[in-house]
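Continuing from the previous page...

OK, I double-checked the sequence for DUF6249 domain-containing protein against my notes and this is the correct one:
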Amino acid sequence: MMDFIMVPLTTGIVFAAIYGLFELFVRRKERLAIIEKIGEKLDASAFEGKMRLPSYGGTRFSFSSLKAGCLLVGIGLGVLVGFFLNIMVVGGGLSELRHFEEERLIGAAYGASVLLFGGLGLIIAFVIETNMKKKEDK
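Thanks. Re-ran it with the corrected sequence; updated structure tokens here:
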């Protein structure tokens, strides 16, 4: 059905990939040349005391794992609620609905509950993060 567009599309993709590879190698050479030019003008005394590893011993909290955990808990609860909604809808006597409409209703229930509880998980993570920052500032 779409044979007329496959040949030009494939040719375009191949040429774009080849162009991208050439551009990647040319940029690499340009960057190395710029680094060499800058390296000739600088000496090591310019970087004394400025290049240190960040200190990890302070009271810094990483909230990324908390956010990911709350999001996953929210998604899990969303799937669970979607499953129970599915059981209630199918077992609730909605047999007059056609099969297609029933599948759309079930899909909407799953999608809505997953998004709802995923967002709720992110909101809970935000509240916990702000509470911990307030305690840290005190």
